[in-house]
């Protein structure tokens, strides 16, 4: 107590420069404190019927001395106060609780009302300390300035009224109201609502915070739609900043969900053109309406592919994008699929021409279809995408897969022997590709991923090339026929005579030896080159090795075959075949991890290939998709969905017959392959995922060469600010274009930035918008991003000054940002933010 009194007196004498300070001990309880206080250069005197003598001493005898004038009792009425004139010209020290609080805050006496009128606020030392910290950081210029800081303390906020509202909205979303209750107990409610009215235009005879919140959501939505809102532009800006804040994301979602129904947003949206909704995300219903409208428009063919892709890009900035990312990606894949299909000329002049066209562009249609199905499945919103799915499924099956493979079948029917001129055969893989490294005395690892279709490998190629200092090259290879696992795996081993085992299994012999199992394959692999230390191993074993174990494995062997199986393991079962798209995604992730694992073990030469490809369609097959007649012959050994092995097989309508000699195999067997995409009936097996036939999807398999570079080769795209017209801001908002200079590619990666307007001292004077630059288009116009920024109240203090539009980049995974790009503007507005929009 005595320390606070001494501090308060010291402030009046030294900080405020008073020569005389009066102290009335109204309750006659502070005499001991008066007697104990000692201030350098200050004389203590007491009023005790000696007013004239004191006045004469202080004014005439010691006109420059400092005096503390104490009275043991209340201040007399002005008419009876002989020292009133002197008192009015100096200062009065009040040592009651309010005065002590004022003193502790270091506030001048003119701020007394801001303390005395709100005693409940100051009874908490924690609140007092927090307010004191605010005052030390930025001293208030008025009692209301103190009250604004008190509101921030009550709400647990750091900052101005916007921050207070944000914190209170957070409490409201959690069903709490501690901040508002404290504002009420502190006698700040009236002041709070006056501040809200002044700042945001909220007026009510009975103000209520939930009512304000509902009005805020509704007003922001109306203003975004170009209509009048109940609140002003500053409220819309505060709302946008709060809704975009990571801190308040959950609170925004909770209240938005509650008020969406209350404000009848879904009904309102039905009467609006969906194109006008693209820039807005106040409610989740907006995304659902946009999705429904886009899907319907695509099904009706009333929108162009560039339009849809632009909308999908724009919605990436939506608050709700995370919930609908798979739907938007499915829409994007469907759009690209339809565009690619429209541009595809599915004709060919030879088998070589067919392979060339498939490997250069047609594979992309398989890829986009698979990705579409994958995202549709992951979204859990198949009903929402129903019309689009039917369109994509029908076009994929009839206009692409069937049309392309019917044309391809015409070329296959002309073949005497199974070979495609100009393209390597699977049987020659070891001699021409794997052994190439051994002839140079270089070690090599071959990764064989079961059913790694060419289009899947192409996506894997792009993922690998995204890695820093990694490069890869993809080329097509032609698989053996029939295109199934046992024969494909055998063909990738050192070349020997390949033959069907001849029993009722689909086993394959190489030079009369078994090719089944790791031990058999390892033995055959070691025979490829005299002295080679060979190893056949499962991918799971490699991935579970420590780095040191991986290095030992590579050190102790010259050629390693790593067997990976996820696609075929999932797709080749009736119960799980519809999960094929997800298995493909996991396979790509597996292979990228495997490549990194191998290179960490000092492996420098990696080949990735497959035993065969596959056909896949998500919808169950129609009867017309099966071959028309059952196969006939002297002996049928193996009957699969896509091939038949036997002896003395007779020509069958809808199927092409090959002898083993025509397929490059030994033995006296015949093989029947259903034409185009037809399947054979087979009890208990799946029919949506199949392989073994001669379609391009089954027989064009990948050879992916992976290497590692010495120098870093990955960088991010560059972004610049494009300003139309003069670099001036004359209203409450500004529109600019942000331009991504290069398309995103394997080695040119996306860049995430935070955009906003800032004063020279770093003060944010607009909303801050996260922007992702990940455009892949070669068309420069499609890499432009128009953005508008709304100025906030803080901008008023910087009128007629230079301000800056900045693009800021996050430093690693920290919460800090650094400037990436900046453009100066002259801020010249004739009206303040409160009246400007």
UniProtKB/TrEMBL annotation:
Domain of life where this protein originates: Bacteria
Species this chain originates from: Jiella pelagia
Annotated Pfam families: PglZ
Gene (name only): pglZ
Name this protein carries in UniProt: BREX-1 system phosphatase PglZ type A
NCBIfam families found in the cross-reference section: BREX-1 system phosphatase PglZ type A
């Amino acid at each position: 107590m005595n320390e606070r009194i001494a501090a308060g007196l010291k402030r009046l004498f030294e900080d405020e420069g008073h020569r005389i300070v009066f102290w009335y001990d109204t309750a006659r309880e502070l005499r001991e404190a008066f007697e104990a206080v000692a201030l350098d250069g200050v004389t203590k005197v007491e009023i005790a019927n000696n007013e004239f003598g004191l006045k004469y001493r202080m004014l005439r005898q010691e006109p420059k001395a400092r005096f503390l004038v104490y009275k043991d009792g209340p201040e007399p009425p002005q008419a009876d106060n002989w020292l009133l004139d002197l008192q009015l010209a100096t200062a009065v020290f009040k040592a009651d609780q309010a005065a002590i609080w004022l003193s502790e805050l270091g506030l001048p006496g003119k701020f007394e009302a801001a303390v005395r009128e709100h005693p409940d606020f100051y009874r908490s030392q924690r609140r007092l300390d927090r307010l004191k910290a605010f005052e030390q950081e930025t001293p208030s210029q008025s009692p209301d300035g103190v009250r604004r800081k008190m509101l921030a303390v009550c709400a647990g906020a750091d900052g101005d009224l916007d921050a207070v509202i944000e914190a209170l909205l957070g409490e409201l979303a959690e069903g709490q109201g501690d901040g508002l209750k404290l504002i009420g107990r502190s006698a700040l409610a009236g002041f709070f609502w006056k501040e809200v009215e002044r700042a945001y235009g909220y007026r009510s005879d009975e103000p209520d915070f939930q009512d304000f919140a509902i009005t805020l959501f509704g007003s922001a939505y109306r203003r975004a739609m170009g209509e009048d809102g109940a609140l002003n532009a500053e409220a819309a800006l505060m709302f946008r900043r709060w809704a975009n804040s990571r801190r308040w994301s959950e609170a925004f979602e909770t209240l938005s969900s509650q008020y969406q129904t209350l404000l009848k947003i879904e009904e309102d949206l039905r009467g609006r053109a969906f194109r006008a909704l693209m820039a807005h995300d106040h409610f989740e219903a907006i995304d659902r309406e946009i999705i429904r409208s886009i899907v319907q428009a695509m099904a009706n063919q009333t929108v162009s592919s560039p339009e849809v892709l632009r909308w999908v890009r724009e919605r990436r900035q939506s608050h709700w994008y995370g919930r609908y990312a798979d739907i938007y990606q499915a829409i994007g894949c469907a759009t690209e699929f339809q565009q690619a299909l429209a541009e595809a000329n599915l004709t060919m002049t030879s088998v070589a021409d067919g392979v060339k066209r498939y490997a250069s562009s047609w594979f992309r249609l398989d890829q986009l279809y698979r990705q579409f199905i994958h995202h549709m499945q992951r979204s859990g919103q198949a009903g929402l995408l129903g019309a689009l799915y039917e369109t994509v499924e029908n076009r994929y099956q009839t206009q692409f897969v069937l049309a392309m493979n019917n044309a391809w079948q015409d070329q296959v029917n002309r073949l005497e022997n199974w070979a495609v001129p100009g393209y390597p055969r699977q049987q020659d893989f070891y001699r021409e590709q794997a052994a190439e490294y051994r002839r140079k005395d270089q070690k090599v690892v071959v990764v064989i991923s079961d059913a790694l279709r060419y289009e899947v490998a192409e996506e894997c190629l792009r993922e690998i090339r995204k890695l820093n200092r990694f490069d890869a090259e993809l080329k097509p290879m032609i698989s053996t026929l029939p295109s199934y696992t046992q024969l494909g795996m055998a063909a990738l081993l050192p070349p020997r005579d390949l033959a069907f085992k001849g029993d009722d299994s689909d086993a394959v012999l190489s030079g009369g030896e078994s090719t089944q199992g790791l031990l058999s394959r390892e033995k055959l692999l070691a025979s490829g080159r005299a002295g080679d230390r060979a190893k056949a191993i499962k991918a799971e074993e490699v991935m579970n090795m420590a780095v040191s174990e991986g290095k030992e494995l590579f050190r102790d062997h010259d050629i390693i075959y790593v067997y990976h199986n996820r696609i075929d393991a999932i797709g080749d079962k009736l119960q799980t075949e519809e999960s094929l798209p997800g298995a493909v995604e996991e396979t790509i992730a597996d292979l990228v991890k495997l490549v990194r694992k191998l290179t960490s073990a000092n492996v420098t030469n990696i080949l990735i290939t497959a035993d065969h490809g596959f056909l896949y369609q998500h919808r169950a097959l129609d009867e017309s998709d099966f071959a028309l007649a059952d196969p006939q012959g002297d002996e049928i050994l193996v009957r699969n969905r896509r091939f038949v092995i036997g002896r003395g097989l007779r020509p069958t309508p809808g199927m092409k017959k090959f002898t083993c000699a025509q397929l490059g195999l030994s033995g006296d067997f015949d093989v029947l392959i259903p034409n185009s995409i037809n399947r054979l009936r087979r009890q208990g097996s799946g029919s949506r995922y199949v392989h073994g036939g001669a379609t391009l999807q089954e027989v064009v398999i990948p050879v992916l060469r992976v290497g590692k570079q010495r120098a870093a080769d990955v960088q991010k795209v560059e972004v610049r600010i494009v300003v139309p017209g003069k670099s001036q801001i004359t209203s409450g908002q500004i529109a600019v274009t942000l331009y991504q200079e290069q398309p995103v590619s394997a080695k040119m990666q996306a860049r995430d930035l935070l955009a906003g307007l800032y004063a020279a001292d770093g003060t944010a004077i607009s909303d801050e918008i996260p922007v992702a630059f990940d455009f892949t288009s070669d068309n420069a116009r499609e890499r432009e991003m128009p953005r508008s920024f709304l100025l906030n109240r803080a901008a008023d203090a910087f009128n007629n000054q230079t301000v800056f539009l900045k693009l800021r980049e996050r430093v690693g995974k920290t919460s800090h940002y650094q400037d990436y790009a900046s453009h100066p503007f002259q801020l010249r507005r004739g009206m303040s933010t409160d009246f400007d929009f």
